Structures are given as C-alpha cells and as structure tokens.
Amino acid sequence: MDTEYFVIFLFIITGLLLLIQRSEPSKRRLVIVLLILPAILLRNFALYREMETEALTALWVAIILNFLYWLFIGRHIPVRGSEQIKVLGMDD
Prior knowledge:
By secondary structure, this protein is mostly helical. The protein contains four helices and no strands.
C-alpha cells in the first residue's frame, strides 16, 4: 500500500464527508448532490492508478474519523439553520 496516496485520499474523503456532515440540514441534500462529482472523479482516479486498496482503506478510516468528530464535537455543537443565525451589526 502506498501511504502517500492513502493520506491524500484520506484528507480528500474526510473533507467531503465533513462538508456533508456540517452542512445546514435543509441544504444537506443539495450538498450531497454537488459532491457526487468530486466523489466520482476520486473513484475514477483510484481505478485508473490501480489504488483501490488505498482508496477503500482511506474511505473506512475517514468514516471512522468523521464518526469520532461527530461523537465528541458534533453532538455538542449542532449545525444551525439560516433562520437561527443572527448577524450583529454596528447598532447592535
């Protein structure tokens, strides 16, 4: 297994999963649809370079890392919707 590509795949997949996890609940479906293209490109790259083992291992490690992030941080700081965010200006 090539560890350099494993780390690259791990960072990319973790970032994609984190974007889905921390997106606004009402827009999450749109984010998933938009991230299908990068996921397909990453999959095709792994197949072209014959690095399926690195990509699948990185996928499982990324899922575990995202679960741990949700377990320790994400549950305590939930994602808020647009209607719950208050912007403070000069007069506030």
